[in-house]
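Anyone have tokens for Cytochrome C oxidase Cbb3? Sequence:
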Amino acid sequence: MSETGYEYRVVRGFAFSALFWLVIGLVVGLWIAFEMFNPALNLTPWLSFGRLRVVHTNGLGLGFGLAGIFATSYYILQRLTRAPLAFPKLALAHLYLFNVAIALAALSLFMGMNTTREYAELEWPLDVGVVILWVMYAINVFGTLLKRQEKQMYISLWYIIAMTVTIAVLYIVNNLAVPVTLFKSYSLYAGANDANVEWWYGHNIVGFIFTVPVLAMFYYFLPKATGLPIYSHRLSIISFWALIFAYLWTGAHHLMLTPLPEWIQTVAIAFSIFLIAPSWGSVVNGYYTLQGNWDQMRSNYLVKFFILGITFYGLQTLQGPLQGLRTLNAFFHYTDWVVGHVHMGTMGWVAMVISASFYYMIPRITGNELHSIKLANMHFWLILGGQLTWTITMWIGGIQQGAMWKATNPDGSLMYNFLDSVTSLYPYYKLRFAAGLVYFVGILIFVYNLVMTVRKRPVKA
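Reply: yep, here.
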């Protein structure tokens, strides 16, 4: 407990849990990136691409992403309400059980226990555990809001509330299943209904983990880091409600040109295009906050992370809706272009904003100065260079891949077989692996910098 009465042990615990799972998830990611051009690394079923890929996505999405969200949201919640956590012991229990759940989830996926549903691969006993963890978190969120000392609710609190409520609904509805053994269950849905529910969940669980709470961080920490008020609180509120309204209708854009009813696909396309407006509302808000103070991009190491992060978010929210258009979807879907699209968001937007949030937050909850601003700048340039090389490589590879799949001879037969398209991508996969190594070095510097910051003796006022 800090001198102000705020509970910071749980904040620090989740922050370093996020760093731990970030390193583990990236190691697994590098392994499977190597497997893409060296299949001999599939040494055992436990190290096969099919198993490691879901360990990678869950380890980073849930282990790093959610832990980072819990750390920052517990911090933001207390600061914006001017009240300590309503149930600090429950928050600590949440921390310990969270790490146990992530470890068990990784182990189960290594073992091949998998529902085969994207971002919902965990079998039913672990699903129950996830729901319990989420209820523990929600009790603290709403309990603290109820006892808040600050009447005005800043935009970051609205984003935290939206995440807390929506993820609960998404997770429970999509993961309804009939258990047949202790470690196996089957979805309550079937056929096209199953696909529709799954991608209503799949798209929106990504949105409400990788968009909504990260915007909460952005709106809180950017003004704190710059010493400048957010450009327009009204614009942030309008963007919030428009984003929340539109997001939940867009999942079917993952199912273009499938047996799903065409009207559902069209509704998803329309709302996907609409999403560009509220998303760019936040981008514009971030840019205009710095009007007249762009020199901070040079003088303030945190600003680079936030501004490049929101830029990648803006690019994501142009790419995503446009990929949902039927003509473009017919070319890009199932290619490595989509892999590049996803990773620009996770390696750029999400990782950069969480990094900057941690750089701001950790020194303040420990009473220490950051170990090295020089290392923080090095971290920034390495992950920026690694991410850009990684994603652009996959975009180019995806365009080549799509073109080869659709190329035909004068008689209408396919010009290339599937194996031709796979082998042609080996140079891109090797470059992706190299870019991933650069990015990983940047992350190791990030972790080292924060560990050394915590190990310092507190600065006396």
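The chain is about 75% helix and 0% strand.
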